[in-house]
Design brief:
With 135 residues, the chain is α+β, with helices and mostly antiparallel strands. It contains 3 helices and 5 strands. A 5-stranded antiparallel β-sheet has the order 1-2-3-5-4. Helix 2 packs across helix 3. It is globular.
């Protein structure tokens, strides 16, 4: 059975994509720490990042770095936070989000889907896409 991320990648479920190529995608999470919280995901459905082909991992990391630079610019934050957890969905993914301190790294304090504002999510995705054109 496909992971929820594979379903998003394949268009079976909606996603706010900010980046896409043949190996890696990046889209906003539906349960963000802050608006702009993006998941960088390999297209290949591999559960653990340590099991990824090293070339795919290098590409996922490079995309996460670009997305992080875009987030820092778009949201005027001190840093782009990065977390690799992977317990909630069995498909490798990197969380990249606006961060101004360590408090923002707590994935247990995310907004629930029904707490997010759809217009704000759309604006966040557009801000990241625009910033990616500059990095």
């Amino acid at each position: 059975m496909s992971s929820v991320f594979t379903k998003i990648i394949n268009g079976e479920l909606p996603g706010r994509f900010v980046y896409r190529d043949e190996d890696v995608v990046a889209f906003l999470t539906v349960e963000p720490i802050r608006y702009g919280h993006t998941l960088v995901v390999p297209v290949a459905e591999v559960d653990k990042w340590t099991d990824l082909d090293p070339h795919v991992w290098a590409k996922v990391s490079a995309v996460a770095q670009r997305v992080g630079a875009a987030i820092t610019s778009a949201f005027d934050c001190e840093r782009a936070g990065v977390v690799i957890a992977g317990f909630e969905v069995p498909h490798t993914h990197i969380h990249v989000f606006p961060a101004n301190g360590m408090a923002g790294y707590d994935l247990s304090s995310v907004m629930a889907m029904d707490e997010t504002d759809a217009d704000e999510m759309d604006r966040a995705a557009e801000k990241i896409r625009t910033a990616l054109e500059r990095v």
